[in-house]
Amino acid sequence: DAYNQAFRPQYHFTPQSNWMNDPNGMVYYNGEYHLFYQHNPHGSQFGNMSWGHAVSEDLVHWEELDVALQPDEHGMIFSGSVIADETNESGLFPTDEGGLVAFYTSAGDTQDQRIAYSTDEGRTWTKYEGNPVVPNPGIVDFRDPKVIWHEASSQFVMLLAAGNKIMFYGSKNLRDWDYLSEYGQDVGAHGGVWETPELFQLPVDGNTKNEKWVLQVDMNPGSIAGGSGGQYFLGEFNGKEFIRDEKDQGINWVDYGKDFYAAQLFNGAERPIWMAWMSNWEYASAIPTHPFRGAMSMPRTLSLQTDQSGEVQLVQQPVEEMKDLRMEPVYEMADKTISEPVQLSSFDRQTYEVVAEFKVGTAREFGFRVRQGTETGEQTVVGYDAENGYMFTDRQYSGVTDFHPSFSGVYRAPTKIKENGTVTMRIFVDRSSVELFANGGEEVLTNRIFPSLTSKDLQIYAVDGEVNVESLKIYPIESSWK
Ligand code: FRU
């Protein structure tokens, strides 16, 4: 079975073989979700960068198709986006029904922005003869075009990562682009080069009369967990400029784990849904998986919510559709105080979802030890440090860690106890990843792990005191590859 290796994710997208990094060209069109991705079709290291292609009707089951865009005399095909031009604004299509337009960076001697178009739902593409549509203005790192339709100013807007800032361009026809503004040189984190920007609008606390724009930017290196990661800014986009909210101060990290990069939303979808590359540039090329290298996160829905301290923050949850892979719960617990580790007898699972609510008591720390093996000595700890107020994932003893010196570690997300004295954890365990959504997705930690296939035990634990398990359910997750 092509999708059955020890470290092959069972419900996260991976290419059948070879290298993958960023999600690209994500678009919902004619009933299909398209996921293109940075791909080396000829090897399991970065190189020959092309756009791989997969489609899904339900966001859960993916089918890999032929490579969509291949390098040419202008260079490799770096990250970008796709817009459904359903009224043929571009004039690139033979009829008013239009088609798909892809925006990518050509990475040759310099980086510039180019387009290609497709009349057969993304299966085959024609590169535009008028390329580049945005020539290089003399900036070395000038890439990752994300194009959205901006309703209020009736134009398409392109975001580009330009070294240490984001540049905005506007267009009516997807071919001619005018410079609008730039943002970010003196705000946020700047430990590395900025890459793969995103811009989207969301209601605050579900109130559609109070919408905010979210500008998301990736950075490599210098992120919170080390290496590459994402940050976001909240504010207003007026069709020309992004203006950050005065109340939005400091740095907002997207994910406190090490493995969530280059997140991109589906253009054209009814809901805000994004996916990211589940890896880190620090060690991506050394990840011990064969014959593929690189995985995507689950698709996540996004919302903005005001937290207890009155601050608006980005909240992420796996899409509802992930529940389609849930099996009947194999373990349940309710209103039970624990102070000693509780070993789940004959648990024997590699892929599952834990849904738990804890009433914080005297225990200094509590949570779960997943993908445990008595014989292997392996375990990944996903817990809450009540003493210091953070959720964490400890992968120091998770399995194979020695492929790179910066892989092993403990990652932490500051997390407050809710007003009713509880914290919640929703944990998705797969063959080579652990994603923790804490307090309803207010804090997220995404991390790869490489445990033995035989490390399948699970333990609930508390340290130095008691914690009350208000509720706990564990659902096995079936493979999406069947
Ligand atoms: C982000 C990135 C992009 C670039 C692509 C190359 O991970 O570095 O900036 O377009 O990967 O594969």
Please provide the count of β strands: 34
What percentage of the residues does DSSP assign to strands (E)? Answer: over 45%
Stretches with pLDDT under 50, minimum 5 residues: none
Give the end-to-end Cα distance, rounded to a whole number of Å.
Answer: 10 Å
Shape label: globular
Largest sheet: 6 strands, antiparallel
Mean pLDDT: 98
Task: Name every ligand kind in the structure.
Answer: beta-D-fructofuranose
Instruction: Give the radius of gyration.
Output: 22 Å
Number of helices: 0
Content-based structural category: mainly beta
Helix content: under 10%
In the sheet with the most strands, the strands line up as 23-34-25-30-31-32
What does this 3D model show about the protein?
With 482 residues, the protein is mainly beta. The chain contains no helices and 34 strands. The strands form 7 sheets. It has a 6-stranded antiparallel beta sheet, with no helix packed on it. It has a 6-stranded antiparallel beta sheet with strand order 24-33-26-27-28-29, with no helix packed on it. It has a 5-stranded mixed beta sheet with strand order 4-3-2-1-20, with no helix packed on it. β1 and β2 form a beta hairpin.
